[in-house]
Design a protein that fits this description.
heterodimer, A: 8-stranded mixed sheet, B: 8-stranded mixed sheet, 18 helices
Chain lengths: 334, 398
């Protein structure tokens, strides 16, 4: 175990990937809030517009220009068209020409479909943000990148090798080499994975990890397992379930019979989640951080911030979850 | 008398299920397909990358996009009548693209030119954006075969499932003379028009070189050249697909869970769908509530009565528990009550979230809510068990 939270926050680019719906946005927001609380100036970069970051911070829109969204966190949406326009303006000497071209609808469609253009424009913007200076050192410290979907990370990481056979020397080569060294520099860039303790997401995460470990040089951070259900009953309590059910049936207390069934189901959810976590632990040699199911699914900023604080505290201590996996008195499941 | 989704299953020719990733969209699509077969329809479920157990249940083990009949004997044996037929096929990304090229290329030379092109290979390898297009091509193929009464299309698990609506016309625009011709050496034409084309073509290629570099631009141009000859076929199919998606016999089915993150995406999808002139007829909320009463699994229980722990313990066990057992039993009964209370609270919140989204949907949208079921669905009886939920319309807009 390495002192992960220190080193996690010490990187310039903190990328997060995972299947849609695993709660990546919430985790990114929570860690950014905690970074800000620790006196940093974090920027969240969202790739692919999903409106979920807006709902976490309860702001109307997050645009291409970074804006403060709350709790000292800044956020932006890395829109492909804008990134491409910026890229062209950098490379075409006459700004007006560049702008006319990028506003052409047909050409926009073309760039959308052409290979690697989206990745080049995206990485160009990310590395510009990474190098941006403010009055005291870097303007953004650190940058959290909320990747759209599992495939997105691979596409960005693949870019240098896809381009390898296609570009000769020249400015393009230098640019791609620059992206490549940023993404593979373990001191600057770290990629973390987010998943759920369910069969399908866990399976996909193992496959993603294997691909990353085998084919890519990117430094891997932590594996965040979100929405881990609490243990509903203690083993001692569970040991009396059969007797209780028997009596409840004898007295025809239907509600209590249902209660036993509900609790058995909750125990199965819990056991399944534990089995998936064990499987992740077996197949993915990264520090695993478990995040409990949060009762309220419409999260307020305070809850999200607290979640980041606890998560980084766990990483500081080299722990994977809160020591007490408490039974139902305080428990919640989804 | 039909209720819930059945009326649509008997009337429509195409159902397109869209939704955010991780909501069980493939499972719901398969369950809808099975229900259609139970209603006597020859049904094809076109799916994308199902979980292994579901693939097994559908007889889709082994990566293959061949259409196969799903054996329903097991289900028939348990007394379920399946008068129709159920077929299933799975998309396989890269090979689908290659087989499409093989199908539509006019001659061997063009085909090989495309398949060997490095730009094509790079695109075929990371097909995030053409995936949606391929699904539509495949759909067009099976819809025109006339072999099926109803096709259920499970769309790619991209967050932005709107791609399937935009991809065909995007590719068509892409292949329009105005774009591709710029990149195709227009040495065949004569006169002023060809000259202008050549002029803007040169400018476009120059610009492209700036963006991606000279060699890649060159490879792209030859890719386009090979594609150019096939543009009419692509355009025709794109127009046909767009017409099919908007036809009266087509319904879109939005699948979500009651989870806040999924609902945000689902709402964006619903808005995008209606803004593109497509009918969203069904909204399915999967794994959205905990069943709290055995007598009625369809009931969404949101409140829980009080419980006298001591009285209950005394009534049930009188004196036949040791002192320490009695303590544990009391705490067990209290815990059980707490588990139920938590579940009811969850149900209440889930229902409120579902209603919030439903209010954004067209008023005639059919709302369906499926309970959280035990474990993964791994066989046809498991899919069949979703039937009652599909047949029970819910009032989600009040």
């Amino acid at each position: 175990m390495f002192g992960l939270s220190g080193s996690l926050l010490d990187r310039r680019l903190l990328m997060f990937t995972g299947k849609g719906g695993v709660g990546k946005t919430t985790i990114v927001a929570s860690l950014a809030l905690e970074a800000a609380r620790r006196g940093r100036r974090p920027l969240i970069v969202e790739l692919g517009h999903r409106a979920s970051m807006e709902s976490v911070f309860a702001v109307d829109t997050i645009g291409y220009v970074p804006s403060e969204v709350g709790g000292g966190v800044w956020a932006m949406n890395l829109d492909f068209e804008e990134a491409l326009a910026e890229y062209l303006e950098e490379h075409i000497p006459v700004k007006r020409v560049a702008r006319t071209i990028t506003r052409n609808k047909t050409l926009q469609k073309f760039f959308h479909a052409a290979p690697s253009v989206a990745e080049v424009a995206t990485l160009n913007k990310l590395s510009a943000l990474e190098g941006e200076r403010g009055p005291q050192g870097y303007r953004w410290d650190p940058i959290f990148v909320d990747l759209d979907a599992t495939g997105h990370a691979i596409m960005l990481l693949n870019l240098p090798s896809v381009m390898d056979g296609l570009i000769g020397d020249g400015p393009m080569r230098r640019l791609i080499d620059g992206f490549s060294s940023l993404l593979t520099d373990p001191r600057r860039t770290i990629l973390s994975l987010v998943t759920l303790p369910l069969e399908l997401p866990a399976q996909e995460t193992v496959e993603l990890y294997e691909r990353l470990a085998k084919h890519h040089d990117v430094e891997l951070g932590a594996l965040f397992v979100n929405q881990v259900p609490p243990r509903p009953l203690s083993p001692k309590q569970a040991g009396l379930l059969d007797r209780l059910e028997h009596q409840a049936r004898a007295f025809e207390l239907d509600t209590l019979v249902d209660d036993v069934a509900i609790a058995r189901r909750a125990m199965r959810y819990h056991a399944n989640a534990r089995a998936q976590i064990n499987r992740l632990r077996r197949d993915i040699p990264l520090p695993i951080v478990e995040l409990p199911t949060i009762a309220s699914r419409s999260l307020d900023l305070e809850t999200v911030s607290l979640m980041g604080q606890q998560t980084l505290a766990l990483l500081d201590k080299g722990l994977e979850r809160e020591p007490a996996d408490l039974p139902a008195e305080t428990g919640r499941r989804s | 008398m039909t209720s819930g989704i059945d009326e649509l299953l008997l009337r429509q020719r195409l159902l397109v299920s869209v939704g955010p990733g991780g909501v069980g969209k493939t499972t719901v699509s398969a369950a809808i397909g099975l229900r259609a077969a139970e209603l006597g329809r020859r049904t094809l479920v076109l799916t994308i990358d199902p979980a292994k157990r579901l693939a097994d249940a559908l007889g889709l083990t082994g990566l293959d996009d061949r259409i196969r009949e799903v054996p329903t004997e097991e289900l028939r044996k348990s007394g379920v009548a399946v008068p129709g037929k159920l077929y299933a096929a799975m998309f396989d990304n890269a090979t689908s693209m290659d087989s499409l090229m093989q199908r539509v290329a006019p001659d061997v030379e063009t085909r090989d030119k495309i398949l060997r092109n490095r730009v094509y290979r790079a695109m075929a390898g990371t097909l995030a954006r053409s995936h949606a297009y391929l699904a539509m091509e495949r759909l067009h193929e099976v819809m025109s075969s006339g072999d099926y009464d109803l096709v259920i299309l499970d769309t790619p698990p991209a967050r932005n499932a709107l791609e399937i609506l935009d991809a065909p016309s995007r590719l068509a625009t892409f292949l329009e003379e105005g774009v591709v011709k710029w990149f195709v050496r227009a040495d065949k034409g004569r006169g002023w028009r060809a000259k202008i084309m050549q002029g803007s073509g040169a400018a476009a290629i120059k610009l492209f070189e700036v963006v991606v570099g000279k060699d890649l631009a060159h490879e792209t141009v030859s890719f386009f050249e090979a594609f150019y000859g096939m543009r009419e076929g692509f355009q025709e199919r794109a127009a046909a697909i767009q017409a099919t998606l908007r036809a009266k016999h087509t319904s879109f089915v939005l699948v979500s869970s009651s989870d806040a993150t999924h609902l945000v995406d689902a709402e964006a999808l619903a808005t995008g769908i209606s803004s593109r002139g497509v009918a969203l007829d069904v909204a399915v909320f999967n794994r959205s509530y905990e069943r709290l009463t055995h007598a009625d699994p369809l009931a969404i229980v949101v409140d829980v009565g009080a419980l006298e722990v001591d009285a209950a313990t005394a009534l049930l066990f009188e004196d036949d528990l040791s002192r320490s057992e009695r303590e544990t039993m009391r705490s067990l009964i209290a815990s059980l009550h707490q588990v139920r209370l938590d579940a009811a609270t969850h149900n209440l919140r889930a229902l409120a979230s579902v209603r919030r989204l439903a209010r954004q949907l067209p008023p005639e949208t059919l709302g369906l809510i499926i309970a959280r079921l035990d474990g993964d669905i791994r066989d046809l009886p498991g899919l069949h068990a979703l039937g009652p939920y599909l047949a029970a319309p819910r009032d989600i807009q009040s």
